[in-house]
Amino acid sequence: MLVAMPLWTTENPGEVLVSSGLATMGFALPAAIAAALARPGVRVFCLTGDGGLGMVLAELETLERLRLPVTIAVFNDSALSLIKIKQRPSGHGGPAAVSYGPTDFAAIAAAVGIPAARVTSQEQLAEQARASLAVDGPVLLDVLVDASGYPHAFDAIRGGGR
Prior knowledge:
4-stranded parallel β-sheet, globular, alpha/beta, Rossmann fold, about 15% strand, about 160 residues, 8 helices
């Protein structure tokens, strides 16, 4: 979220729901469901990390059953990246504590009936996000990301190497 939110723009107040602290895992999808219920017929974009989506995976079934117009972009790097970055100074836990095997979120979404695609470039993400506007119901974009730039972005946001 710390990397994505500075790049997201809106036109009107009240168009972004963000957990306080910008890092509450599991917040994004339930918030997107609530936003879609509160504004029927309006496409909602849900930006989430793989760890956060993993915590609320069952809500994909809710999203499909209610046929809510939500596009989920899950940033998938097979790690709890923010926690990994915060552990840098101490080294607590090591990589095994915050990393996990590859997860195909597109396949999981498809298993509950949600159209989904794996995305490997910014161009594909933009194309698939635009295409989701024409879909009646939910869409999931499994965005495979390289987390190597996260530490630099985190340090820039936090004002140093904490």
